[in-house]
Amino acid sequence: QQQVKQSPQSLIVQKGGISIINCAYENTAFDYFPWYQQFPGKGPALLIAIRPDVSEKKEGRFTISFNKSAKQFSLHIMDSQPGDSATYFCAARVSDGAQKLVFGQGTRLTINP
Amino acid sequence: NAGVTQTPKFQVLKTGQSMTLQCAQDMNHEYMSWYRQDPGMGLRLIHYSVGAGITDQGEVPNGYNVSRSTTEDFPLRLLSAAPSQTSVYFCASSLRGQPSELFFGEGSRLTVL
C-alpha cells in the first residue's frame, strides 16, 4: 500500500522554467520528508529535506513547500537546467528512529534546452 | 572512502535459482537497508537492520533473507528466484536515530527468466 503519492509521473520543462513536483501522504507518523534525485544508472542521492514543523525550505534553486494540515509537500526547481534532468523521488521517514523511508512513485523530469 | 558498494551490478538467474546480493559500507553506519525499484512503484523497503545482529522486515520481504553479522556488511539472499523478483535492488546506509541522509549504492540489476 502506497502511503506517499507523487505526481506527475513525468514532466517536461523548458530551460529556465519552474519545475513543480507534488506529493501527498496518508500516515501522520512521519517525521522527516526528504527528496532524492536519481540519474540513470546511479543510486538515489539526497537533494533536500524538511521537517514537519517548517513550512518551507530553500537551498539554492530548490525549494520544498510543506503543508502539514493538507498532508502535502512539493518540490520547486527554479531556473531549471538541462543538468536537472533526472528522476525525483519524494519520501517520508517513519518516526520510529530506524530511518525507514516510504517513497513516492517517482517523477521523470526532462529539461529541454 | 568508497561509501556503499554493491555487487554484482548485473545478474541473470533462472527461476528457482538462489543467489546473494552483496552490500558493504565503510562509513560505520548503524542502519542498513535493501530497497527494490520497479517502474511506477518507486522504491520499496525489503529488509532493514538497525545494527549488527538485528534485522527486521520491510514492506516487501517475501522471498528474501538477510543477515547482519558485522556493521559493514548486509547481504540480501534470494532463496528461490521468481520472475516477479526481476528488479533493480539498492542497498542504503545511514546513521541511526535523528533523521539523517540515506546513502545509496549504485544498484544491482537482477533479471529472473
Task: Describe this entry's structure for a reader.
- The complex is a heterodimer of chains A (113) and B (113).
- The model of chain A has no long low-confidence stretch (mean pLDDT 94).
- In chain A, the strands form two sheets. In chain A, strands 2, 4, 5, 9, 10 and 11 form a six-stranded mixed beta sheet that branches. In chain A, strands 1-3-8-7-6 form a five-stranded antiparallel beta sheet, with no helix packed on it.
- In chain A, β9 (86-93) and β10 (101-103) form a beta hairpin.
- Chain A has strands at 4-7, 10-14, 19-25, 33-38, 45-50, 56-59, 62-67, 72-77, 86-93, 101-103, 107-112.
- Chain A contains no helices and eleven strands.
- Chain A has 113 residues and is mainly β.
- Chain B is mostly beta strands.
- Chain B is 0% helix and 51% strand.
- Chain B has strands at residues 4-7, 10-13, 19-25, 31-38, 42-51, 54-57, 64-66, 76-78, 87-94, 103-104, 108-112.
- The N and C termini of chain B lie far apart (36 Å).
- The chains are: A mainly beta (113), B mainly beta (113).
- At the A-B interface, β5 and β10 of A face β4, β5 and β9 of B.
